[in-house]
Amino acid sequence: xxxxxxxxxxxxxxxxxxxxxxxxxxxxxxxxxxxxxxxxxxxxxxxxxxxxxxxxxxxxxxxxxxxxxxxxxxxxxxxxxxxxxxxxxxxxxxxxxxxxxxxxxxxxxxxx
Amino acid sequence: xxxxxxxxxxxxxxxxxxxxxxxxxxxxxxxxxxxxxxxxxxxxxxxxxxxxxxxxxxxxxxxxxxxxxxxxxxxxxxxxxxxxxxxxxxxxxxxxxxxxxxxxxxxxxxxxxxxx
Lengths: 112, 116
What we know:
A: mainly beta, B: mainly beta
């Protein structure tokens, strides 16, 4: 069955250091992959999406993600973390039946 | 343009009670969906609709009903609430649900439901 795996449930970094949130997918066809961010007690906001136009995708707030088919990965990165980046991040994949499969989420904490 | 709205924001039910969670969007989106979010499990799809009059089951449909009589509204009904349905519920909508370049999913603010 199709699945999305977020490899870390919690990531903690210092402000100003790089962020790496890892996501692997299992689709056998060309996926449509997404990263969403959820701040406390809020709904989900789209950060970026991959739809085969380019393997390196730039999103909002300085985030980007690289699609690597050989590794079935779509990791999210940011060069320099800011305190406002503290939130929960979800990787997601559209299946062929109009269904989105979400990963279990990664909570990002930023240390001052 | 209000986007996706959900009511109520909070609800407490007793086991066996029924209720309807409301969801509306004003973006003329064809695709609407309901998710539940539980700690450590991400979001799981309950039901979805690709247009008025069309609904289908997602990953965890048991105990929930939906209908889509208009493009704007997609209510979620709990038939007989159970403690296992304690969760945060999110409604979402998008242009066509295909995940293509022009299709972005917008989420409502959520409904926090507790079943005692």
